[in-house]
């Protein structure tokens, strides 16, 4: 009673068929939810299989939802448990277990530079590696055509992995390129609400291929192996009392006599997996959207390059200290996040107790998903030309712009990696624009601005011509 309104529920399927039909018609899940919200309002009540799912559409609904602590859980079920041998990690756990782990991770990541000055130095070093790697590929020609939607993956992971595991990988590391490409494939085949076997768990036994179960497991296994190797290496080389990174600190906690019960080796593996997925995918996809729009908007590149030349010059790498003096580059970062998150849903929450939202009843156990499309592109968007890539919108003196800018969420479950993500975006974009121009390669089509659906939205794969600036 008083559950949010939505499409009719059919026996067994619930509203799955209606949602699938809308998705076919409107191209993406975000566009389908936008369509449903026109009919049903800011909360759309769905039932997919046995699962109740509410989509929150619009700033007021999303803010009220994210600030309601009764809605701070994460979904349960085999889809969420199989990836980490039970409910483990930080991304998809809740209650006291999650609080203890999140606090520990945040405190110790800071020891290894997270959010501090040496984070800037570490990102600057990686940006230099990236610039030099591109220059090597250019050779004497001074230009090269590259697959731009995926080329940031290893560089982004390196900035994260330095703090987590004290390791960096070569941009040509074949194993890591493979792991990122299979993860990319998985993320295109599922979405933030899950996949067929998460809504209909029994299908994993009868139709493992069709329900997405096989792909899910085939993707996770090599990533577990990769992380396990890293943990084993740390166990072999770690000197007690001299932690080098988060894995070492965590191992010390596991070995301490008075450790709380939540600290186990499986939990450490789950945390690394969460970071591998939540940390590298999101930032890499954001770069994909950013350079796509920079290629299509040479005047934005030119404006940023003039700013960088006058503040930083050409002889040193931009740093996070330059942020206040590079407002146009910072505005590109925000415009990038807006375009990426407009087509990406927030991580699903779960009602820990019966509660109410926007005057509706939300029963315990309901999954609830924020639809950022509404605030960045859709009906509640405060910008009149939302699909245009126009960084200037963030430089206009309008405070409501920042009130409506919540790509990392709000409240207690707010993104744990915001400072690293923003730092990466700022330094990499500034460094690349300082050195290169980006354009459509001869004989190639203009990149398409439509997003592809998945756990996180991706740009349609595209190539760019990168040439040395004169
Ligand atoms: C463009 C980059 C990124 C965006 C837009 C982004 C956005 C988000 C959003 C919307 C959430 C969900 C908040 C909620 O559930 O209410 C989230 C959670 C999370 N993010 Fe990010 N994120 C980004 C990068 C990163 C990075 C680089 C890391 C790792 C260093 C990271 C780690 C996490 C983790 C661990 C959570 C779960 C937090 C929790 O449940 O307590 N994210 N992120």
Written description of the protein model:
With 470 residues, the chain is α+β, with helices and mostly antiparallel strands. The protein has helices at 16-26, 29-40, 59-66, 78-81, 95-111, 117-138, 153-165, 174-189, 196-199, 203-206, 213-237, 246-255, 265-296, 298-311, 327-342, 373-376, 399-403, 418-435; strands at 43-48, 51-57, 143-147, 349-350, 355-357, 360-362, 367-371, 436-439, 451-452, 458-459, 463-468. The strands form four sheets. The chain has a four-stranded mixed beta sheet. It has a three-stranded antiparallel beta sheet with strand order 3-11-8. Helix 1 crosses helix 2. The longest helix has 32 residues, at 265-296. The mean pLDDT is 92. The structure holds protoporphyrin IX containing FE. Protoporphyrin IX containing FE (HEM) binds at residues 66, 90-91, 102, 160, 274-275, 278-279, 282-283, 286, 337, 341, 346-347, 407-409, 413-417, 420-421. Protoporphyrin IX containing FE binds at residues 66, 90-91, 102, 160, 274-275, 278-279, 282-283, 286, 337, 341, 346-347, 407-409, 413-417, 420-421.
Q: Which features does this protein show?
A:
470 residues; alpha+beta; Cytochrome p450; four-stranded mixed sheet; 10% strand; binds protoporphyrin IX containing FE; signal
What string, H for helix and E for strand, traces the elements in order? HHEEHHHHEHHHHHHHHHEEEEHHHEEEE
> For the largest beta sheet, what order do the strands appear in spatially?
1-2-7-4
Determine the CATH superfamily.
Cytochrome P450
Number of strands: 11
CATH class: Mainly Alpha
Uncertain regions spanning at least 5 consecutive residues:
none
Which class best fits the helix and strand makeup? Answer: alpha+beta
What's the mean pLDDT score? 92
| Whole-angstrom Rg | 22 Å
Largest pleated sheet: 4 strands, mixed
Portion in helices: 40-55%
């Amino acid at each position: 009673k008083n559950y949010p309104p939505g499409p009719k529920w059919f026996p067994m399927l619930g509203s799955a068929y209606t949602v699938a039909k809308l998705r076919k018609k409107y191209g993406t899940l975000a566009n389908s939810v936008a369509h449903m919200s026109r009919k049903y309002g800011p909360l759309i009540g769905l039932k997919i299989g046995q699962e109740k799912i509410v989509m929150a559409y619009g700033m007021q609904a999303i803010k009220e939802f994210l600030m309601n602590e009764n809605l701070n859980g994460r979904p349960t079920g085999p889809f969420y448990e199989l990836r980490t041998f039970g409910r483990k990690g930080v991304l998809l756990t809740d209650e006291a277990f999650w609080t203890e782990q999140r606090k520990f991770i945040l405190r110790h990541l800071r020891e290894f530079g997270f959010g501090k000055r040496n984070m800037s130095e570490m990102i600057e070093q990686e940006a230099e590696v990236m610039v030099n790697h591109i220059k090597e590929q250019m050779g004497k020609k001074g230009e090269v055509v590259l697959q731009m939607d995926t080329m940031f993956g290893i560089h982004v992971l390196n900035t994260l992995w330095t703090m987590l595991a004290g390791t960096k990988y070569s941009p040509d590391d074949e194993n890591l390129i493979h792991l990122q490409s299979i993860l990319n494939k998985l993320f295109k085949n599922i979405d933030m609400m899950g996949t067929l076997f998460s809504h209909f768990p029994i299908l994993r036994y009868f139709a493992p291929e069709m329900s997405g179960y096989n792909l899910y497991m085939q993707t996770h296994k090599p990533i577990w192996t990769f992380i396990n190797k890293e943990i084993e290496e740390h166990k072999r080389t770690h000197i007690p009392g001299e932690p080098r990174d988060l894995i070492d600190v965590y191992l010390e906690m596991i070995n301490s006599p008075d450790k709380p019960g939540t600290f186990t080796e499986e939990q450490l593996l789950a945390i690394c997996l969460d970071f591998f997925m939540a940390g590298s995918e999101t930032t890499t996809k954001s770069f994909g959207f950013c350079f796509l729009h920079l290629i299509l908007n040479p005047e934005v590149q030119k404006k940023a390059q003039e700013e960088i030349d006058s503040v930083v010059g050409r002889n040193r790498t931009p740093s996070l200290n330059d942020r206040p003096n590079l407002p146009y580059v910072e505005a590109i970062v925000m415009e990038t996040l807006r375009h990426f998150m407009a087509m990406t849903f927030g991580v699903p929450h779960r009602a820990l107790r019966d509660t109410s939202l926007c005057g509706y009843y939300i029963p315990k156990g309901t999954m609830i998903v924020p639809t950022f499309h509404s605030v960045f592109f859709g009906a509640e968007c405060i910008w009149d030309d939302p699909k245009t890539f126009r960084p200037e919108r963030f430089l206009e003196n309008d405070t409501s712009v920042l009130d409506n800018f919540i790509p990392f969420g709000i409240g207690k479950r707010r993104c744990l990696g915001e400072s690293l993500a923003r730092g990466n975006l700022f330094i990499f974009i500034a460094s690349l624009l300082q050195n290169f121009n980006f354009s459509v390669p001869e004989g190639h089509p203009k990149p398409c601005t439509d997003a592809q659906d998945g756990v996180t939205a991706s740009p349609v794969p595209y190539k760019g011509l990168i040439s040395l600036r004169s």
